[in-house]
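FIELD: query
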Amino acid sequence: MNINENDKNNFEIDSIASGPFETFGYLVSDATKQAIIIDAPLESTQLFMNIIHKKHLKVKAIVLTHSHWDHTADAAELKRQTTAPLYVHKDDVFRVLEPNKFTIMRLPFDLEPAKPDIELQGGETIDIGNMKFDVFHTPGHTEGGICLSLRGENVIFSGDTLFSGSIGRCDLPGGSMPDLIQSITDKLLTFPDETVIYCGHGPKTNIGSERNSNPFLIN
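FIELD: result
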């Protein structure tokens, strides 16, 4: 599945859902024809590459919001085909280096390891064309979970940190409910209510809706 949203401020977000859990990956580009890929779901490579070729884009970065396999399965192949550097938070690198050890359930196929080129810590800015993506370390779903904010545009890519009406699972290895709630409260809920959230699964939402109605965030 592919959905394109052409923003009035001259950047485009192509949303791709693939794999057994309908995991979302995002391709964000601007008028310079430079682009960033956010997450690399299983069987997403050809979907991404079709858009990249059609729009004549140059991918400058592949960023993983966290290292669960459904978000990282195609990272190595996307890196090969785009030649873009792979960004992962330092606390989640171990899963992408040895993905088959950390799948929780046995998969009927092998995952290809992916070697990160840049290890994030949180607080960085990734420049892509005229766009600036600010990196927020948001542990709780995994140790090295991150969210990306498109600076000045009221747009956040939340991975599995925050969903429409829900939050990421905390019962998997490396998860922590207190850490996740603190990450959301201290990092994401500081944004204006109109900020749109593009999630790792399910529909997009906004900060105001989650602040006011998300059952996990209402005291």
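FIELD: remark
The chain has a mean pLDDT of 94.
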